[in-house]
Design a protein that fits this description.
This protein is an alpha+beta fold. The termini are far apart. Strands 1, 2, 3, 4, 5 and 6 form a 6-stranded antiparallel beta sheet that branches. The longest helix is centred in the N-terminal third of the chain and has 15 residues, at about 15-30. It is built from 5 helices and 6 strands.
Length: about 140
C-alpha cells in the first residue's frame, strides 16, 4: 500500500464547488484516509490573483506513483484546467502529490503556508484520534 499527501487548490469563481466536487471524486475512489478542512489562503507570487481555497488529503492507494499522478492530472483537466490556466491566474483545480511514501517530492509546496495549514490539521486530528470532517471554514 502506498501513502501520499496531496494538495488541492482552486481560485476560480466557483472555487467552493470545485473543491467539494474534487473531494467527492477522491472519496468515491476509496483512497481518502484523512483530510483537512477547506480553507482560504492568499495567492503566492501575484497578489492580483484571487485568493485560493486549499486542502490537504492523505491517501492510501495500491496504485503506483505514475498511475496516481495521471489520475489526478486527469481530474484537473476534467475540472477545466488547461495549460493557459496558470498564465491567466485562474486555476479551476490544482492537485499535486507533495509527499509520496514519506518522501517529499515538492519541498517548495511542503513549506508553504497553504500546505502546512492542512497538514497541521491532519496531524492534529490523528494525534487526537478524531478524524477531521471535510467542512469549510
Amino acid at each position: 500500500m502506498n501513502s501520499a499527501l496531496i494538495s488541492l487548490a482552486s481560485n476560480s469563481p466557483d472555487k467552493q464547488g470545485q473543491m467539494e466536487k474534487a473531494f467527492a471524486e477522491l472519496q468515491a475512489m476509496g483512497i481518502v484516509a484523512e483530510a483537512s478542512s477547506i480553507y482560504e489562503t492568499a495567492p503566492c507570487g501575484n497578489p492580483r490573483h484571487p485568493n485560493y481555497l486549499n486542502a490537504v488529503v492523505r491517501i492510501d492507494t495500491s496504485a503506483e506513483y505514475q498511475a496516481l499522478h495521471d489520475t489526478l492530472k486527469a481530474m484537473e483537466r476534467a475540472h477545466g484546467r488547461t495549460p493557459q490556466s496558470k498564465l491567466s491566474g485562474e486555476i479551476p483545480l490544482d492537485i499535486d502529490i507533495v509527499v509520496w511514501n514519506g518522501e517529499t517530492l515538492r519541498p517548495q509546496d511542503y513549506g508553504r503556508e497553504y500546505f502546512q495549514i492542512g497538514l497541521n490539521e491532519i496531524e492534529s486530528a490523528v494525534k487526537n484520534q478524531h478524524p477531521h470532517p471535510i467542512v469549510t471554514h
